[in-house]
Please model this.
Amino acid sequence: ENTAKVQAARTELGNRTLDYLAKAKQEEVGANAAGATARFRDWHNKQVEELTKGLANSEAQRAFGIIAAQHGLSSRGEVATFELGETKRYQKETNAAAINNKIDEGANAVTEFAVQEARKEALRNAEIAIRQERMDAAQAKQYQRGVLTEFHGRRIHVLAVQNPQAAMEYYKANFDEIDAKARPQLEELAKKAGAQKLGLDTATGVMDE
Model:
């Protein structure tokens, strides 16, 4: 009789845990994953306490306690792995968004000071990403080059529209920080913008005569 009741309690605990984990993996994502392991531990302890009260004698309770402890340990491991993965994913997405925002700030900055400040902040966030991802020296260099290339590329695109003559000057000034694969396209963009502006100025000058 004890064995059957202990097994029934074990099955009930397993079913409740499966339901809990399924719900947690849907709801406790991103920033909400922080503390998931601790929350599960407290919840699991309450379930064990409740189910233990339903067992008639100390022998059954003791047997269930051993089983429940083993179950709790393995389940906490699963939750801890989930929490760690979600936390890393959230940190990565948050940092990527911060870098993107700083790149946009730099692209649309009105003053050179603002451009350089945005560049510094973008690189600072890049350093955070490098540490979080545990990149080696080569990976870190490539990642930083990618951030800077995106930064300068967006800035050149904005200048090509708003201040065409400055686009080529900016390209030349930041040439070394732009990835070699992106240089031809950005140089062509800057050249075309400057040429179009020059052509427009020439046409305007003729019309004014």
Summary: The two ends are 109 Å apart (CA to CA).
